[in-house]
Amino acid sequence: MPAMEWSDKLELGLGKMDDTHREFVDFYNALQAAPPEAFIERLDAFIEHTVAHFDQENRWMEKVNFPGCHRAEHDRVLVVLRDVRERAAKGDTFLGRRLVEELPAWLDNHVNGMDAALAFHLQTIGFDVETESFRADAAGGCGEQGAGGCACATLSKDEAA
Questions:
Q1: CB 57 within 8 A of CB 115
Q2: What is the dihedral of CA 110, 8, 120, 75, to 10 degrees?
Q3: What's 101's domain CATH number?
Q4: What distance lies between CA 84 and its chain's CA centroid?
Q5: I want to staple 147 with a disulfide (CB 3.0 to 4.6 A). Which of 11, 77, 124, 143 is the partner?
Q6: Is residue 9 part of a domain?
Q7: For residue 12, which of 110, 88, 79 has the smallest C-alpha distance?
Q8: How many domains does the chain have?
Q9: Is residue 79 one of the residues assigned to a domain?
Q10: Does the residue 1 lie in any domain?
């Protein structure tokens, strides 16, 4: 299984979100390259990063009342990661390697669907992910600030462009 490479396809134009996604790729690559004796340790690091990654996005969504099932997908992924970790710790290496095979496609779909919609919404309403607050000049172009619930929340990255 080859390493995952960062590409413009994963770039959403929100610095902090893009940086976190780059880190996700780095943690994934460390996991993907792990020899069997280091797999659990690297999976633990990957899970720790993913929890922080999802907590960050969930916080942003809460602050702007972002609608949809984005948070639920985060929760499902964490359940799978923790289940695979538990099984891998008991010697089930097949599921661990299968997880590694599936993560690149999942990330691509998640970033270019759910995360693209979130990034577009945050940019549209003037939410600054660095300060986790609305910019002073925010016009709330997608309804009132923090109101969520607008049509742009369901656009894919290509539709949002």
A1: yes
A2: 20
A3: 1.20.120.50
A4: 19
A5: 143
A6: no
A7: 110
A8: 1
A9: yes
A10: no
* pLDDT per residue of the chain (161 residues) written in tens, 0 to 9: 789 999 999 999 999 999 999 999 999 999 999 999 999 999 999 999 999 999 999 999 999 999 999 999 999 999 999 999 999 999 998 999 999 999 999 999 999 999 999 999 999 999 999 999 998 887 554 444 444 444 344 344 454 44
**127-143 burial string, b = 16+ CB within 10 Å, else e?**
bebeeeebeeeeeeebb
Amino acid at 107: L
Q: 88-122 burial, b for 16+ CB within 10 Å, e for fewer?
A: beeeeeeebbebbeebbeebeebbbbbbbbbbbbb
Task: Tell me the residue range of the domain where 134 lies.
Answer: 14-160
